[in-house]
Amino acid sequence: MKDLLSITDLTPARIHSILALGLDLKRDPAKYRDAMRDRTLVMLFEKPSLRTRVSFEAGTTQMGGHAIYYDLGTSPLGKGKESPEDTARVLSRYADVIMARLFEHGTIVALARHATVPVINGLTNDEHPTQILADLMTILERKGRLQGLTLSYVGDGLNNVTHSLMLAAAKVGMNVRVGCPDDPAYRPDPAVVRRTALCAGKSGSAVEITAGPAAAVKGADVVYTDSWMSYHIPEEQMAGRKARFAPFQVNAALMKRARRGAIFMHCLPAVRGCEVTDEVIDGPQSVVFDEAENRLHIHKAIMLHLLREQAGA
Ligand code: CP
Ligand code: NVA
Questions:
Q1: How would CATH label the architecture of 130-291?
Q2: What atom in ligand 1 is closest to the CA of residue 268?
């Protein structure tokens, strides 16, 4: 495994070993103080970011390495003057790891194919794998296990976070329910649903897509939502999407349908009053800031895992 572009790249065993490394990095960061000494991470961004950018950069510093932030808008690639292939070849001569947050998933696939160093997907329109590894780490910390739990996602189903969550949950044996409007514009990508069903068949878990928010969260151990207006969604869709997703808002009444002791998760940034209310995101069941913190630990684990693989260790 050279790159992390999709949850599909990961076997269940690899997911568990990255989670174990993330937990160890959190427990004893000093042990890894020099793990990236003389190593450089290049971070390519086409979209905004708080968590992904800062946690990758801080994580690299904490392990003795150096991170370069590169706004693709100022690059020959972003100006349409250079191909992803040549960009990847050149960056591989300077840096040890590339992390990229892009619109088109195909662009990161092209970068990875031509880079000789590991490429990490820091979010594309289709997937957000680094987020979901941090989420699994957070669930493991809170619940002590993953297998057999039920994770319910409500809101925008045709969404990078939803796709990666579905695939990852099914791989580790969690039941997945997605509550979203019954419309191809808001349901998960059918190809992802098929891949999730295959993974669930292997792990013995179940997948369900439903248009009923209450049915989606009934008896859930984890309730998860995300923005209705992802970075790539045009502003003019806002009013229509708000109306369509309103029944899927995570509020106190919806949380009551979940299992007692259920946790609430959100990758952030959150639009309070839209996909989630203040009382839920600030309430006792919310783990969103631990979840955000775990991005730091898991990103360090992902980089070390890929660098070790690269070194044949
Ligand atoms: N959750 C997440 O990826 O946040 P940013 O967009 O701030 O990086
Ligand atoms: N689905 C969201 C996730 C943000 C971290 C987006 O793509 O904007």
A1: 3-Layer(aba) Sandwich (3.40)
A2: 1
How far apart are the C-alpha atoms of 203 and 125, rounded to whole Å?
Answer: 27
What topology is assigned to 7-128+294-311 in CATH?
Answer: Rossmann fold (3.40.50)
Q: How far apart are CA 160 and CA 189, in angstroms?
A: 10
CA nearest 16: which of 161, 149, 173, 143?
173
* Substitution site in 47, 131, 160 for ligand 2 pocket (most atoms within 8 Å of beta carbon): 160
In the reported structure, the alpha carbon of residue 48 is separated from the centroid of ligand 1 by a whole-number distance in angstroms of 8
Q: What is the pLDDT of residues 30-72, one digit of tens each?
A: 999 999 999 999 999 999 999 999 999 999 999 999 999 999 9
Separation CA 87–CA 260 (nearest Å): 50
pLDDT in tens, 249-292: 999 999 999 999 999 999 999 999 999 999 999 999 999 999 99
Which sequence spans correspond to the domains of the chain?
A: 7-128+294-311, 130-291
Q: Which two tokens stand for residue 274?
A: 């839209």
- Separation of alpha carbons 292 and 267, rounded Å: 7
Domains 7-128+294-311 and 130-291 share a fold: yes
Rounded to 5 degrees, what are φ and ψ at 43?
-115, 115
Quick one: residue 268, left, alpha or beta (phi over 0 = left, psi -120 to 50 = alpha)? left
Task: Return the residue whose CA atom lies nearest to atom 6 of ligand 1.
Answer: 49
Query: In the beta sheet, which residues pair with residue 176?
Result: 151, 207
